[in-house]
Amino acid sequence: MAIHSVFDAGALKAELESAAISPSFIPTIWKYVIQNPECNLDDIPSLPSKAYPILRSKFRAMTTTVTSTSDSKDRVTTKLLIRLQNGASVEAVIMRYDTRLGKYDGKPRLGGPRSTLCVSSQVGCKMGCKFCATGTMGFKSNLSSGEIVEQLVHANRISHIRNVVFMGMGEPLNNYTALVEAIQAMLGFPFQLSAKRITVSTVGIIHAINKLHDDLPNVNLAVSLHAPDQDIRCQIMPAARAFPLARLIDAMQAYQNKSGQKIFIEYIMLDGVNDQDQHAHQLGKLLEKLKSVVNLIPFNPIGTTSGFKTSSEQNVKSFQRILRGVYDVRTTVRQEMGQDISGACGQLVVNLSEQRSAGGASLLTDIEDLHI
Predict the structure, then answer these.
(1) Considering only CA atoms, which of 195, 160, 114 is closest in space to residue 363?
(2) In angstroms, what CA-CA distances link 71 with 68, 121, 305, 356?
(3) What is the pLDDT of residues 234-272, one digit of tens each?
(4) Which UniProt keywords apply (predicted)?
(5) Measured between alpha carbons, how far is 191 from 125 in angstroms, rounded to an integer?
(6) Which residues have a Cβ under 8 Å from the Cβ of 261 and sit 6 or more positions away?
(7) C-beta separation of 245 from 235 below 8 A
(8) Which of 67, 77, 144, 215 has CB atoms 3.0–4.6 Å from 337's, for a disulfide?
(9) Which of 97, 94, 96 is nearest to 120 (CA)?
(10) Residue from 367, 116, 133, 120 nearest 266 by CA
(11) pLDDT digits over 179-218, tens only?
């Protein structure tokens, strides 16, 4: 029987309640483990005596280990390779920002340095998106909620994490129960992240989008749209066949009506596939009833097997100009971080033998800054 992570909130709560121990002790347990990562669970002070044999026999302070870290050349991005107790590995990426750089709405920025963590929710992914390295792995397994939370614990030892984005390996909404449990843990003590600083990205799992706001109010929703019509979407995202674009837009509209929040649209720019002016007009019309922010993502190389090319700078600028100027859709262009360590969008894949070099990484707009 696999030993649970002490951060598996559901399992820990159930075991404590079965012994008539209040779950109110869970934050105390977590705080001690975070402060003492190599601790023996018997060392946690001030717990009921009945709690110790339960912790000793069924839980472990940490079930995952960081086996390697890779820093980008400018040290704004760090990729963690994390080994799970079943022997599989996932990747998580820390991205550092300085809010004082540049201006926002014509005014100097306030604040200072902060870090965002991109977490994985699955080993591999079953969505099979043709432009994404993780899809080449196929689907291996879901992470438990504790394995998701432990990525945050590991990352916080390197850099204080303020924002979390579920944009790493896997489709978060295909691991829905663990996703919800993990985020609820991150929102509570001792992590105390703000829901408005957590973003869940999905290719468009409609039935899960329909219940996400009820389970996780105020969490940001990002939808990997990547095409303005169903045919192109199915060509580059095979799983899109199960999620017709018209129904997906309806689900996004319903989510927005409930939450009152803008929806982030992720759109990877593929040369000659979805980056022409006509595609920009189609996308603008598709989103006209939504309050959204479109993030145009340059395609990142994922090895020699990919048949895609990065859109030209001219095409990206024209695409952005149409969305902004004709349809008044707020549009940003993602300046990628961590390409030189294969930590950029679409590049996460566990492959210890391959080392890529695609140039240096640089600062970009944090998702928190995309709110209007």
Answers:
(1) 114
(2) 10, 22, 26, 13
(3) 999 999 999 999 999 999 999 999 999 999 999 999 999
(4) Methyltransferase, Transferase
(5) 28
(6) 218, 220, 221
(7) no
(8) 77
(9) 94
(10) 367
(11) 999 999 999 999 999 999 999 999 999 999 999 999 999 9
The letter for the amino acid at 27 is P
Using CB atoms within 10 A of its CB, is residue 170 exposed (0-12), middle (13-18) or buried (19+)? buried
d(CA 270, CA 366): 23
Which one of 118, 132, 345, 368 is the catalytic residue?
345
Return the DSSP state at 123. E
- This prediction's pTM: 0.87
Each residue's pLDDT tens digit, 283-327: 999 999 999 999 999 888 765 456 889 999 999 999 999 999 999
Whether residue 91 lies in the annotated active site = yes
Measured CA to CA, the distance from residue 265 to residue 249 in angstroms comes to 11
Considering just the CA atoms, what is the radius of gyration of the chain in Å? 21
The span from the CA of 319 to the CA of 305, in Å, is 27
> What is the rounded CA–CA span in Å between residue 103 and residue 200?
27
Alpha-carbon distance of 96 to 117, in angstroms, equals: 9
CA 210 to mean position of chain CA atoms: 19
Among candidate residues 211, 188, 189, the one with its CA nearest the CA of residue 200: 211
What lies within 8 Å, CB to CB, of 72 at 6+ separation is: 78, 337, 338, 339, 340, 341, 343, 360, 361
Among 15, 91, 150, 368, the active-site one is: 91
Interacting residues of 292 by C-beta distance below 8 A, sequence separation 6+: 262, 263, 264, 265, 329, 330
